[in-house]
Write a structure and sequence with these properties.
Elements: H1 3-19, E1 27-33, E2 39-45, E3 48-50, E4 55-61, H2 65-72, E5 75-82, E6 87-98, H3 103-111, H4 114-118, H5 136-139, E7 152-166, E8 173-179, E9 185-191
Antiparallel strand pairs: 1-2, 1-5, 3-4, 4-7, 5-6, 6-7, 7-8, 8-9
Length: 193
């Protein structure tokens, strides 16, 4: 496998993962830095990947801490591991935020299922919820999906570096790839695992 093969196969895998809930890279760890300069990590669902632009798309609630963390510092790392292929991807880049009123967020919202839209309704992420004082019937009440639309945000992650690492019985392999502002592959090299 050449470095060019690694680049092509990685992006094919990411594009496939965005469409396949069973993919090993469907759920990725998105890492940011909070206001106290502490790292924060959370699992996110890969919604779209574009190999020509080297970008990944995720959805979020605009009331979540990560929305504000990326406002203050757009630099992020994404980490994924596929147990089937024993492949780890660590991607570094920057996050662009697109609020609910933006054209990109509106287009993404329109593609969501009703069930997914309803996940953005209700209280802000992380707020206390009194399960000991609310009965199950109250928790399962129907929610109007339109309540979630003002909270829906789109995150576009622009990849600048890809750290590709494959575990093998003999001879783990690792490569570093760098992309320029346009998404073109600017440099690639093999490195020690």
């Amino acid at each position: 496998m050449t470095l060019a093969d690694i680049d092509a196969s990685t992006w094919r895998e990411l594009e496939a993962a965005a469409a396949n809930p069973q993919s090993g890279f469907r759920f990725l760890n998105l890492c940011s830095v909070d206001a106290e300069a502490r790292p924060q990590a959370r699992m996110v669902v890969l919604r779209r990947a574009d190999r020509s632009l080297r970008l990944l798309e995720f959805h979020t609630d605009m009331r979540s801490p990560k929305w504000w963390e990326f406002s203050a510092n757009p630099h992020a790392t994404i980490l994924g591991f596929c147990p089937q292929t024993q492949l780890q991807l660590r991607l570094k880049g920057t996050v662009e935020r697109h609020a609910s009123g933006s054209d990109l967020a509106k287009a993404a919202w329109d593609k969501l299922s009703t069930w997914t839209r309803m996940t953005y309704a209700g209280g802000p992420p992380g707020d206390e919820r009194g399960f000991d004082t609310i009965d199950e019937a109250a928790l399962s009440r129907p929610v109007d999906e339109a309540e979630g639309k003002p909270h829906f945000g789109l995150l576009i992650f622009r990849v600048r570096t890809l750290d590709w690492f494959q575990l093998r019985r003999q001879g783990n392999r690792r490569a570093l790839l760098t992309y320029d502002e346009t998404g073109a592959l600017a440099a690639s090299r093999w490195v020690n695992p």
